[in-house]
Input
Amino acid sequence: MTGQALPVITINREYGAGGRALAAVLSKELDIPYYDRDFVAKTMEESGFDEEDIEREGEELSKPSRVLNDLLNSAVSYSSSHDAIFKAEKKVILKLAESPCILVGRCADHIIKEAGIDTVSVYLHAPREKRLKRTEELAEYGKMKPEKYMEERDSKRRNYYKYYTGREITDASNYTFCFDVGKVSIPLCAQIIIDTIKNTDRTEGKQV
Output
């Protein structure tokens, strides 16, 4: 797609729905970088927080933490680590979005749209069984049961997105595309996105 202006692509997802896999396919086909866990190193540089803090708080917010933030943020002098990390990640996202790229999570879709940057936003979901199988393959759940871990990750992502955007992460109106990857394969999702980009005049936002 050399010579054609490309948008920034943002991907939100349920845990185990394949956001990273889709980003990798799009990155290869469009020849643009994608950023997922790379946010950690870049946010460390921007914020001064260490890797453990950013991994723990950089995209997820438990319900008790959200309530506590709401209460304490009424104090002028208070700024939570969640807020500081979010502000650092926002700076990183806007810097990366100065050129075409793919951004996974971190409220990037909302941040990019607010900044008026051309974007194609994607949300991936899948049946519970499929995501549970992927959760077991990823083996990130430690001593927790895979089902509990998957549910907790999704809950924290929903809370985080709601807290920093005021919207529901599952609301289809947030996105250009919503895919059920239980029915639409990751390669097909990528092809649909690429075909749409190819057939859209990015200066006017119209199909050509």
About this structure: The domain at 8-207 is CATH 3.40.50.300 (Rossmann fold). The chain has one domain: 8-207. The chain has a mean pLDDT of 84.
